[in-house]
Amino acid sequence: MAYYLLKIAVTTVLIVAISEIAKRSSFIGALLASLPLISVLAMLWLYIDTNDVTKVSALATSVFWLVLPSLVLFVTLPLLLKQGLHFYVSISISIGLTVGCYWLMVTVLNHYGVKL
Q1: Which residues form the domain of 91?
Q2: Using an 8 Å Cβ cutoff, are 12 and 38 in contact?
Q3: Mind listing the pLDDT tens digit for each residue in 92-106?
Q4: In a domain? residue 93
Q5: How many domains is the chain partitioned into structurally?
Q6: Is 9 part of any domain?
Q7: Residue 101 DSSP label
Q8: How many CA atoms lie within 13 A of 74 on its CB side?
Q9: Is 108 within the bounds of a domain?
Q10: How far apart are CA 54 and CA 47, in angstroms?
């Protein structure tokens, strides 16, 4: 149980720290947020929990393919905000488009035999 709480604490502190740093410097906040820290932590926790490099490899491969559609959010959100749309409307549209791109990516990958 202590290990599970440690995983939650480390992950939570990381996210809170990035949001606090971003208040002071959007560049440093963006730099930290863009690093695959959560993915690396997930792979680390998975390896510690299972000792299975095949699972870690599968996770890393899946993360690679799913990072591509996630970029849609980072393109559409600033564009919508610059157009004067309210933040909550902009983030909702951006998330919806990103979900659609995730679906499209998974569909295309399945068509070509890539299983995530």
Answers
A1: 52-116
A2: no
A3: 999 999 999 999 999
A4: yes
A5: 1
A6: no
A7: H
A8: 8
A9: yes
A10: 9
